[in-house]
TrEMBL record:
Amino acids binding substrate: H112
Taxonomy of the source species: Bacteria, Bacillati, Bacillota, Bacilli, Bacillales
Gene3D superfamilies noted in UniProt: NADP-dependent oxidoreductase domain
Protein name as it appears in the record: Diketogulonate reductase-like aldo/keto reductase
GO molecular function terms listed in the Swiss-Prot or TrEMBL record: oxidoreductase activity, acting on the CH-OH group of donors, NAD or NADP as acceptor
């Protein structure tokens, strides 16, 4: 699979989404986030993933404007948080996100978690924003198969993206297969397992390919067709995480990494959220 840092994947509506993006979860608003996003854009990233809950949308927008890169070449994602859900609340939350970002539109807007009794109405608000041209694509985050089936039973626009925790210890194969069948692009948060990379197989493959363990794991995501958004505020790691396009994992090595699965989450279970 010949990929480059400019590689994109086509969403259900034809929008092009970068295969690699920068995540800014827990990055401090202000200088830390501005510097991280600026470094990523300079390194060639064209996707940035934030959320209202991250409290750093303002800094993301500042870095984007300062980059000198035309807005249409970038892909900015944000999300509606749990206490902002419901139809009217979500519309109001989006206005707040757009104002903080200082943008005229968002490329991708997601329902952050499947809050029981609210996510359908929240998603209706996203459909309205899409119809108004304020978002280029809409989707969900942390939805399991039954959440997607429930939502698709009533929505007018199928979710284009499902952003979930996915990594070698939690490969989400059933969800991956379901999303692929439905044409929903799977996107991985926490792809590097919060730095838990010292697995014997990953170390072995890093040596084999002359790359770092992080690069091996991120390349595994890309070769599976999963969009990935490694989070970092370390400028060296941001560059390192983008250096994925001068090697390719052999198919048997992709399968070997798949076999590491333990169904192990480091984040919350979408079926048991209380926040």
């Amino acid at each position: 699979m010949k990929l480059s840092i400019d590689s994109t994947t086509e969403l259900l509506n034809g929008a092009e989404m970068p295969r690699l993006g920068l995540g800014v979860w827990r990055a401090q608003d202000g200088e830390e986030t501005v510097n991280a996003v600026s470094a990523a854009l300079k390194a060639g990233y064209r996707g940035v993933d934030t959320a209202s809950m991250y409290k750093n949308e303002k800094a993301v927008g500042q870095a984007v404007r300062a980059s000198g890169i035309s807005r249409e070449r970038l892909f900015v994602t944000t999300k509606v948080w749990n206490n902002e859900q419901g139809y009217d609340n979500a519309l109001k939350a989006f206005d707040g996100s757009l104002e903080r970002l200082g943008m005229e539109y968002v490329d991708l807007y997601l329902v952050h978690w499947p809050v029981v009794g609210q996510y359908k109405e929240t998603y209706k608000a996203l459909e309205k924003l899409y119809d108004q041209g304020l978002v280029r694509a809409i989707g969900v985050s942390n939805f399991n198969i039954h959440h997607l089936e429930d939502l698709m039973g009533s929505c007018n626009i199928k979710p284009m993206v499902n952003q979930v925790e996915l990594h070698p210890l939690h490969t989400q194969k059933k969800l991956f297969a379901f999303c692929r069948k439905e044409g929903i692009q799977l996107q991985s948060w926490r792809p590097l397992m919060q730095g838990r990379l010292e697995l014997p197989l990953i170390t072995e493959l890093a040596s084999k390919y002359g790359k770092t363990p992080a690069q091996v794991v991120l390349r595994w995501h890309l070769q599976l067709g999963i969009v990935t958004i490694p989070k970092s505020v370390n400028l060296g790691r941001i560059q390192e995480n983008a250096d994925l396009f001068d090697f390719e994992l052999e198919p048997e090595d992709v399968n070997r990494i798949d076999s590491l699965n333990q169904n192990r989450r480091f984040g919350a279970d979408p079926d048991h959220i209380d926040f």
